[in-house]
Design a protein that fits this description.
The chain has five helices and six strands; from the N terminus they run E-H-E-H-E-H-E-H-E-E-H. By secondary structure, the protein is of the alpha/beta class.
Length: 149
């Protein structure tokens, strides 16, 4: 088992306590970190056939603060772009593996925001979204793309 995360010292402590476990430093919010992780893991473990992505953040965001966009951008980078970039690196490698290979993306309560079909009003409150959920369209598109492979 290979674990990944941003805090190298903590990863080292965990792997020292569990025989047979290895680690790689990874920040899914940083594309270069994802590329380094992929290169390291696939070189050292060419038989890799499962990737579990459990990275995510849920920062407090004040929609009335003009600076809140940086929090939103960090959240989107980590929770949406991170998994997409991770897939972009690992899917070609995993699909070339003999036998079955799997990618598991673990989500959080934040994912429920997409499924709630709501938008934020000028007053900062949540209201029903008349246009439907863009998240649902993205998920549908990803499923369709995966079925074509």
């Amino acid at each position: 088992m290979i674990i990944a995360g941003r805090r190298e010292q903590l990863l080292a402590e965990i792997t020292a306590e569990h025989e047979g476990m290895d680690f790689v430093v990874l920040d899914v919010g940083e594309p270069d970190s994802i590329r380094r992780c992929f290169a390291t893991v696939t070189a050292k473990y060419p038989q890799l056939n499962v990737v579990i992505n459990n990275a995510g953040i849920m920062l407090a965001e004040d929609l009335t603060d003009p600076g809140h966009l940086s929090v939103a951008e960090e959240t989107v980078t980590t929770n949406l772009l991170g998994p997409i970039r991770l897939l972009a690196e690992f899917v070609p490698f995993l699909t070339a593996q003999p036998g079955d290979a799997t990618i598991i993306n673990v989500s959080s309560g934040l994912a429920g925001v997409c499924g709630s079909h709501r938008t934020v009003t000028q007053e900062g409150r949540m209201s029903p979204d008349e246009e439907g959920s863009k998240c649902r369209n993205i998920a549908s598109s990803l499923r369709s793309t995966a079925k074509k492979r």
